[in-house]
UniProtKB/TrEMBL annotation:
Keyword Transport tagged: no
SMART domains (alphabetical): HTH_ICLR (SM00346)
Official protein name in the record: IclR family transcriptional regulator
One GO term (biological process): negative regulation of DNA-templated transcription
UniProt domain HTH iclR-type: residue ranges: 34-96
Gene3D superfamilies in alphabetical order: 3.30.450.40, Winged helix-like DNA-binding domain superfamily/Winged helix DNA-binding domain (1.10.10.10)
Length: 283
């Protein structure tokens, strides 16, 4: 029988709001903070997964950094290989230097080498997409994505972003944090959502209570009405690093009962297995 494939197109949020306010050099609250360095890194983080090229004006709008400062920073980053300048467009794209940093992180942590076979096995067994993510402010960024053989393919790849507060994988990451880290993350989310925060917070609190009871989080047709998923945290290095792993697919197929009775326990087990293997890898 010929296999048919249905693609599920997911709208992925890209960075389009000003970044968090940066302290100035020498501020009393943190005299070791180097604002110039922080601003350069903010420019690199402003590039979303769907951004081929960005100009200084757009980078200024996204980061809140004055345009003259952006011009000096982009020039410096270009000279160092972190950005590439396209003269006909008068815009920049990420360069090889930025890519190398990401690959070095994955290589030195051993995460991809350990996680990918386990994730792919679960994707094949369930016909769902399985992904590993790390946080970036109010979003989660996919590090690895494993697709099933079957009839459903989600168009999400490494680098794709999901909202932290309304996705299962974001809620799982929050659940894996210690009290201090979670309070800081919640404060950042409150600043991001502003007037919408009370409603978002109520759902987050319920998700955290659910996690405490069953060891995983779910989101059914929330951040995207066509997508549902279950997720669990992966806590590493005695809690100094927390990732999250999820399993998901079409909301019409993955009912709340399926998420809670089948996929949730399976992703919790995968997270526990992955966490144990990464701990052994670190001795």
């Amino acid at each position: 029988m010929k296999r048919t494939t249905t693609s599920l197109s997911v709208a992925v949020e890209t960075p389009d709001t000003a970044c968090a306010t940066l302290p100035r050099d020498g501020d009393d609250d943190d005299r070791s903070f180097v604002t110039a360095l922080a601003r350069g890194l903010e420019l690199l983080r402003a590039f979303g997964p769907n951004d081929d090229y960005l100009g200084n004006a757009e980078l200024s709008r996204r980061t809140g950094i004055p345009r003259p400062t952006v011009s000096r920073l982009t020039y410096t980053l270009m000279r160092l290989g972190y950005l590439v300048y396209a003269e006909p467009l008068e815009k920049y794209r990420l360069g090889q230097g930025a890519m190398v940093l990401g690959h070095r992180y994955l290589a030195t942590s051993g995460i991809r080498e350990v996680a990918q076979p386990l994730m792919q096995s679960l994707a094949f067994a369930t016909g769902c997409t399985v992904a590993l993510a790390t946080p970036d402010r109010h979003e989660m960024v996919y590090l690895e994505v494993c697709q099933p053989r079957g009839a459903l393919v989600m168009r999400l790849t490494p680098g794709s972003r999901l909202p932290m507060a309304t996705s299962a994988i974001g809620r799982a990451w929050l659940a894996g944090l210690g009290p201090v880290g979670r309070a800081a993350a919640m404060a950042d989310l409150e600043r991001h959502y502003q007037a919408r925060w009370p409603g978002v917070r109520a759902k987050l609190d319920r998700a955290l209570r659910d996690y405490a009871r069953r060891g995983f989080c779910v989101a059914h047709a929330e951040w995207d009405r066509t997508v549902s998923g279950a997720a669990a945290p992966v806590v590493l290095e005695r809690g100094t690093e927390v990732l999250a792993i999820n399993i998901g697919g079409a909301a019409a197929r993955l009912t709340p009962e399926t998420l809670e009775g089948n996929l949730g326990p399976r992703i919790r087990q995968l997270a526990e297995t992955l966490q144990g293997r990464l701990w052994r890898g670190h001795g």
